[in-house]
Amino acid sequence: MDIWEIDKSLLFLVLVLPGFISIKVYSLLIAVEARDYSKSLVEAVCYSSLNFSVFSWLIVLISSEGFYHHHPFIYWIGLFLVFFGAPSIWPFLFRWISELKVFKKNILSPYKQPWDYVFAKKESMWIVVYLKDGEIIRGKFAEKSFASSYPSERQIYIEEVWREKNGKKFGEKVTRTKGILISQDEIKYIKFLGK
């Protein structure tokens, strides 16, 4: 028998697709190393199996005789939920659960580095960057700012640069600037301040 027969290809797709979607969405939420998806086949099948076990009641329901003819809309919604909707939601749910206080102390953080943990929150804050050459850069890290994530080299773009004035650390915004980009090689440490 040919492995590329339609029934075998469909079975392969059914077993792999939901898990692959979960893996892909997770990698968009949490910074991970570049993945060779050809080596993630077993992982994708396992995630698919977990997804199917949670929705086994729905699969049994929509697979029952005559269900499609009597409820075609619900049938297609059910298929979409099992194969696309739920696999896309599981990574969000996992991230949310991993950040709950009760679980946080008992499971490893999904973030590889504190850098990713801090900047993944996407919070607006005042930031003070101490450079290795002794220079201090103050700025506003907000919605137009950006920090790279693992496994890329750590770089930070701060959208507003501020300077001291009249004894205030954040006295005035530096005019005629569109921010500053700083590489990890230049950074000694960073302080984060509330907005």
Structure in words:
It contains 7 helices and 8 strands. Helix 1 packs across helix 2. The longest helix is centred in the middle third of the chain and has 27 residues. The radius of gyration is 24 Å and the shape is elongated. Helix content is 45%, strand content 22%. With 195 residues, the protein is an alpha+beta fold. The strands form 2 sheets. The protein has a 5-stranded antiparallel sheet with strand order 6-5-2-1-8, with no helix packed on it.
Distance between the termini: 65 Å
Q: What topology, given as strand order, has the largest sheet?
A: 6-5-2-1-8
Q: Spell out the helices and strands N to C.
A: HHHHHHHEEEEEEEE
Helix vs. strand class? alpha+beta
SS summary, helix count: 7
Give the overall pLDDT as a whole number.
85
**Weakly predicted, low-confidence segments:** none
Features:
single chain, 195 residues, alpha+beta, 5-stranded antiparallel sheet, 7 helices
Walk me through the topology.
Blueprint: H1 6-29, H2 41-54, H3 56-63, H4 67-70, H5 72-98, H6 101-104, H7 114-120, E1 125-131, E2 136-141, E3 146-147, E4 155-158, E5 160-165, E6 168-173, E7 180-183, E8 187-193
Helix pairs in contact: 1-2, 1-5
What's this, in brief?
This protein is of the alpha+beta class and 195 residues long.
